Amino acid sequence: MIPSQPVPDTAFVQEIEQDVLGTLLFGGDFRKVMSFLREEHFVADVHRILFRAIHAAHEQYGTTTMAVVSRLMPAETAMLFNEKAGQPPMAYMASLASAVFTGPAGLERGGKAVIAQWARLKAAEVGTKLHEAATDATSDPKALIQGIASDLDDISAELRAGPRRKTLHTLDTATSEAVEDVRAAMARGNGLTGSTWGLTDINAATGGIHPGEMVIVGARPSMGKTAFALSVALRTAGSGVGVGFLSLEMGAKKLAVRRLTDVAFDWGVKVPYTNLVKGTVTEEELSAILQANQDADGLPLWIEEQSGLTLSDIRVRVERMAEQAAARKIAFGVLIVDYLQLVRASGRYAGNRVNEISEISWGLRELGREYGFGVIALSQLSRQVETRDDKRPQLSDLRDSGSIEQDADMVAFLFREAYYLEKAKGKDPDKEADRVGRLIEVQNELEFIISKQRNGPTKTVKLFVDIACSAVRNAARF
Question: Which of 26, 111, 193, 447 is the most interior residue, by most CB within 10 Å?
Answer without folding.
Answer: 111
